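MOLECULE: protein
FOLLOWS: sequence and fold
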Amino acid sequence: MTTNLHTDHHNHAAPATAAPHAGHDAHAGHDAGVPGGLRITQDGYTLDLDTTIAAPGEIDFRFRILGPDGRPVTEFDPIHDRELHLIVARRELTGFWHAHPRREHDGTWVIRLDLPEAGAYRVFTDIAPRALGRTITLGADLALAGHYAPQPVPAVSRTTTVDGYEVTVDGELREAGELLTLTVHKDGEPVTDLQPYLAAFGHLVILRAGDLAYVHVHPNGEPGDGVTPAGPGIAFHTAVPGPGTYRLFLDFRHGDVVRTAAFTLTTETATPRHDPHAGHHHHH
């Protein structure tokens, strides 16, 4: 399902020393307790879609990221090898597309999407505007006209198959964070020659059913570091924004093709971070 239109411009980043923010916690400076992707505007940046209503099928999708001055942003720091990641998902999380649009000189992003079915969709952009100095995820609604029968979120499952690959997930979704390991087999054999995709052996996006809160997930290690294996297991440190049902989408590259494996997992209600009856009163 993944659209692999790699027409993006390779604007090579300055050396890592020029980006002191790169290693910081993804949540640093975010509004406390508000997950990513729920808002069309945040920290002065706005996701401006050319159209929010379209017909199903091939769409010439165009949008801009507007900065605090109201003008299109053209200076971005790369995240996972790209200036911008575009994620499109059906609101019921039964469809997922991860694409990399082309940025035109005026700051308009352009990509041809093939979204064959009518329905309610959510569009996400993962960006790190240079002037902001950190990553944010903006989200906006897209409606594709026509008759549409909403489907339930797929049932919880730790195993999925895609194009003859079987992928399993180990680990729990918790607010406090935990290591999730996704393991890839093909025809019953472990895959040990995964290819790098976006500077990692896998790219994982997690969306919460019901509000489509977007979870940034960072892989542990990277290709070429001498310690991270090219499969069969891909490890991710994952913290979710609260209890609920989540849909996980793993992009992985093997045999020169990027495929997407999807899972549904639920969290158990996590232990509260602080018990209000414990008598710990914080005086500021």
In short: Residues 2-30, 269-273 have pLDDT under 50 and may be disordered. The chain has no helices and 20 strands. The domain at 159-266 is CATH 2.60.40.10 (Immunoglobulin-like).
